[in-house]
Amino acid sequence: MHLQRQPSPTPPRGAEPFLRKRLAFLSFWDKIWRRVSQRTASPGPRALTPPSPAQSRSPPPAQRPSPRPARRPSPPPAQRPSPPQSPELRSAPPAQLFRALYDFTARCPEELSVTRGDRLYALKEEGDYIFARRLSSPPSTGLVPINHVAKATPEMLSDQPWYFCEINRTQAQQLLLSPANAPGAFLIRPSESSLGDYSLSVRAQAKVCHYRISTAPGGSLYLQEGRLFPSLQSLLAYYKANWKLIQNPLLQPCVPQEKPGGRALPEAHPAQHSCPLCQGSGWQGTELPSLQRPPAQDKWERPRSEFVLGKKLGEGYFGQVWEGLWQGSVPVAVKTMKSANMKMADLAKEIEALKTLRHERLIRLYAVCSDGEPVYIVMELMCKGSLQSYLGSPEGQALSLPLLLSFTCQVAEGMGYLEEQRVVHRDLAARNVLVGNDLTCKVADFGLARLLKDDVYSPSSGFKIPVKWTAPEAANYRVFTQKSDIWSFGILLYEIFTFGQCPYEGMSNQETLRQISRGYRLPCPAACPAEVYTLMLRCWKDSPEERPTFAMLWEKLGTMHRRLHLALL
C-alpha cells in the first residue's frame, strides 16, 4: 500500500513569541512560521532612487550626445514597456525634484511629454516609469520613463551670489574682466551648449577660463571624471580647496555690473532698460513687476484705456511700432495694425497660438486689444530698437566681428525654436530683430503675417511685400515655408555684415526677382568671413530642399563664434 507522507504539524501560534524570544538563534522558526512582514506586506512605497552610473540606461556623461545642432540628444534604444496603471503605482518620497535628460513624446494618454531640461516633481514610481508633475508651462502630470530623467540639484541657486542664471559666455567674460572684478573672481551659469549642465567661468589675470560642469545620469555633478558632487555648493567648496586641479584659484564671487547710481543689476535679469519711459518708474529689468505681469490666458484681451502710446519707434510691413506704458508704469512696445487688413475672425486663434511660443530669443507677447481701431499687439520692449537701426548707428558701426557673429547665433537660435514648433515667420529681416541694452537679440513679428488677408500679403496687391528678403517661391507664388525663412536668414546675414545696408541696393523689386532667377546672388561683404558667406549661398539655393535647417546654421555659426573667441584670448 502506498503511504502518502503527511506534512509536519505546525506548532500552535501562541508558542511563536515565546520560542522566538528565548531561542532566537534557531532559523527553524522561519520554516514553520513565516515572518509577519513577509506574510502580510504589500508592495508598498519604495524609495525613488535614480539609477547609478553603472546601472543607468542613459549614456555615461562622457558619451552623452552634443545638443548641437538638434539640441535634442536621443535616449538609448530600449524596449517600450507598457505603462503601469495608476492604481498600481507606488508612492515616492515627497518633493523629489527631477530634471529631464532627454525629450520624450507621450505615446498614450497616460504618458507625459517632456522636453530636455524640464523640471519635474516625481509623485510615484513603478518599474521603468515615474509618475511626475511637470513644473514648466503648461503644468501637467503623467508617466515618464525613468531613464529619461535624473535627480535635480535641490539647492536654491538663485540665492547664491556666484550664480548668474541668464548670462552667456560673452557676457560672463565682459563681467569678469570689468574693473570691479579681480583675478580669482568666478561665477557659475547655465551651459549654452548643453541644456541642463553648467559652466564655471573664472578670471585668470587678463583672460577668462571656462569649465564645463556636467550632470551624471544619477543627478550628481562633476567637473572632472571620477569626482562626483551632490550639489554645486559642494563642488565649489572642493575646488576652492583644491584649485590647482583647474590651475585657477576661486577667490571671490563675481561682482554684478552696477548702474551709474551704484545699484547692482540683478544677476537673473541682465538685460536692462534705460529708455526715458523706464526712468523714474521704479521698475528695472526685463521682467514685469509682480503686480503688472502679463494677463492670464483668460484675460489676454485688454482694454485700450490701459495703454498710453509714446514716441514712434518704427514702421514695418505689418504696422507701426510705438513705445508705450501699460497701466501708467510698465514699459511696453505696441504694434498697431489696421483691422481692414486683418483676418479678424482668426485673430483670437492666432494670438492664442502665438502667446504659447516662449523662448529667450523671441520677443514676448503680452496682450492684445482688438476692440476698436487700430488693433494693438502689446509686446516686450527692447530699448536699443531694431537690429537694422542699431547696426547703422555709431555704436553699431564699431561692433567687432565676434559680436556680429553673436548676433547671427542668437537669431539662428530663436528661429531654430520656431522651426521646431513648425512656425513660419514670413518676414525675417534685421528690422524685425530687436536689441537690448546688453546686446541681446530677440526675433519679433513671428507669425503675424498669418493675420493678414490673403489678398493683402501678395505681390499683386498694394501692400508692399518685402521682395528683397523673400524667397523666390514665396515672392512669386506665396509659398511660405521654413525653407523660405532660411532664404530670408541669408539676407539677414548680409545685413549684419554690411552694418545694416539694404540688399540689392539700386535694384527695383522686379529687377531683383529677375536677377535672382538668372542666378545672381549678393556678393560677399567686406567684413564677412568666407565661412559665413558660404552659409549665405547655401541659404540662397534655388531648390528649397537644398537649403540648410536653422539647427544646422546655429551649430555652424556657434562653432565659428567659439573658434574666433578662443583665437582672440
Automatic annotation (TrEMBL):
<dbReference type="Pfam" id="PF00017">
    <property type="entry name" value="SH2"/>
</dbReference>
<dbReference type="GO" id="GO:1904263">
    <property type="term" value="P:positive regulation of TORC1 signaling"/>
</dbReference>
<dbReference type="Pfam" id="PF07714">
    <property type="entry name" value="PK_Tyr_Ser-Thr"/>
</dbReference>
<dbReference type="GO" id="GO:0004715">
    <property type="term" value="F:non-membrane spanning protein tyrosine kinase activity"/>
</dbReference>
<keyword id="KW-0547">Nucleotide-binding</keyword>
<dbReference type="GO" id="GO:0005524">
    <property type="term" value="F:ATP binding"/>
</dbReference>
<comment type="subunit">
    <text>Interacts (via the SH2 and SH3 domains) with DOK1. Interacts with KHDRBS1/SAM68 and VIM.</text>
</comment>
<dbReference type="InterPro" id="IPR017441">
    <property type="entry name" value="Protein_kinase_ATP_BS"/>
</dbReference>
<keyword id="KW-0418">Kinase</keyword>
<dbReference type="InterPro" id="IPR000719">
    <property type="entry name" value="Prot_kinase_dom"/>
</dbReference>
<feature type="region of interest" description="Disordered">
    <location>
        <begin position="39"/>
        <end position="91"/>
    </location>
</feature>
<feature type="domain" description="SH3">
    <location>
        <begin position="93"/>
        <end position="154"/>
    </location>
</feature>
<comment type="function">
    <text>Non-receptor tyrosine-protein kinase which phosphorylates DOK1 on tyrosine residues. Also phosphorylates KHDRBS1/SAM68 and VIM on tyrosine residues. Phosphorylation of KHDRBS1 is EGF-dependent. Phosphorylates OTUB1, promoting deubiquitination of RPTOR.</text>
</comment>
<feature type="domain" description="Protein kinase">
    <location>
        <begin position="307"/>
        <end position="564"/>
    </location>
</feature>
<keyword id="KW-0727">SH2 domain</keyword>
<dbReference type="InterPro" id="IPR020635">
    <property type="entry name" value="Tyr_kinase_cat_dom"/>
</dbReference>
<keyword id="KW-0067">ATP-binding</keyword>
<dbReference type="GO" id="GO:0005737">
    <property type="term" value="C:cytoplasm"/>
</dbReference>
<dbReference type="InterPro" id="IPR036028">
    <property type="entry name" value="SH3-like_dom_sf"/>
</dbReference>
<dbReference type="InterPro" id="IPR050198">
    <property type="entry name" value="Non-receptor_tyrosine_kinases"/>
</dbReference>
<dbReference type="InterPro" id="IPR000980">
    <property type="entry name" value="SH2"/>
</dbReference>
<feature type="compositionally biased region" description="Pro residues">
    <location>
        <begin position="48"/>
        <end position="86"/>
    </location>
</feature>
<dbReference type="InterPro" id="IPR011009">
    <property type="entry name" value="Kinase-like_dom_sf"/>
</dbReference>
<dbReference type="InterPro" id="IPR036860">
    <property type="entry name" value="SH2_dom_sf"/>
</dbReference>
<comment type="similarity">
    <text>Belongs to the protein kinase superfamily. Tyr protein kinase family.</text>
</comment>
<keyword id="KW-0808">Transferase</keyword>
<dbReference type="GO" id="GO:0043161">
    <property type="term" value="P:proteasome-mediated ubiquitin-dependent protein catabolic process"/>
</dbReference>
<dbReference type="InterPro" id="IPR001452">
    <property type="entry name" value="SH3_domain"/>
</dbReference>
<keyword id="KW-0597">Phosphoprotein</keyword>
<dbReference type="InterPro" id="IPR008266">
    <property type="entry name" value="Tyr_kinase_AS"/>
</dbReference>
<dbReference type="GO" id="GO:0016579">
    <property type="term" value="P:protein deubiquitination"/>
</dbReference>
<dbReference type="GO" id="GO:0038202">
    <property type="term" value="P:TORC1 signaling"/>
</dbReference>
<keyword id="KW-0829">Tyrosine-protein kinase</keyword>
<dbReference type="GO" id="GO:1904262">
    <property type="term" value="P:negative regulation of TORC1 signaling"/>
</dbReference>
<feature type="domain" description="SH2">
    <location>
        <begin position="162"/>
        <end position="254"/>
    </location>
</feature>
<keyword id="KW-0963">Cytoplasm</keyword>
<dbReference type="Pfam" id="PF14604">
    <property type="entry name" value="SH3_9"/>
</dbReference>
<dbReference type="GO" id="GO:0031669">
    <property type="term" value="P:cellular response to nutrient levels"/>
</dbReference>
<keyword id="KW-0728">SH3 domain</keyword>
<protein>
    <recommendedName>
        <fullName>Tyrosine-protein kinase</fullName>
        <ecNumber>2.7.10.2</ecNumber>
    </recommendedName>
</protein>
<feature type="binding site">
    <location>
        <position position="335"/>
    </location>
    <ligand>
        <name>ATP</name>
    </ligand>
</feature>
<dbReference type="InterPro" id="IPR001245">
    <property type="entry name" value="Ser-Thr/Tyr_kinase_cat_dom"/>
</dbReference>
